[in-house]
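Need tokens for this chain, all 121 residues.
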Amino acid sequence: MSLQEVTAQITGEHARAGIDYTVKVDLPDTLGQAVEMYGEDLVYNRLMSSLTIDCQSAIRTQIKKDNATIESIQAYFTELDDGKGWRPKLKARGKSVPEKIQSMLSSLTDEERAAVLAEYM
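Here are the structure tokens for all 121 residues:
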């Protein structure tokens, strides 16, 4: 198990809206540790919830294809032997807001960057 940082914020009209709050949470590092901490039923139910959301996302992607039919969408989930069908995948962690800003600033010319920073500093 290891302490991992988890960040959240709220939106809307609340006085604390838009402020990041980060806490350290002791979370499992392995499936075995997760089952030990939370029990097999909870771990399995969380897995199934996550897989359902992933399937729904894949269905939406298939629906947007020009030639989509219920048959072609179903085939995407059942014809897995060709390696083209749906399988859950690890998701890459997205960039944090500061990382996105740094990336955008580095793509600007020196003059553009100076102008942007002058406006917000």
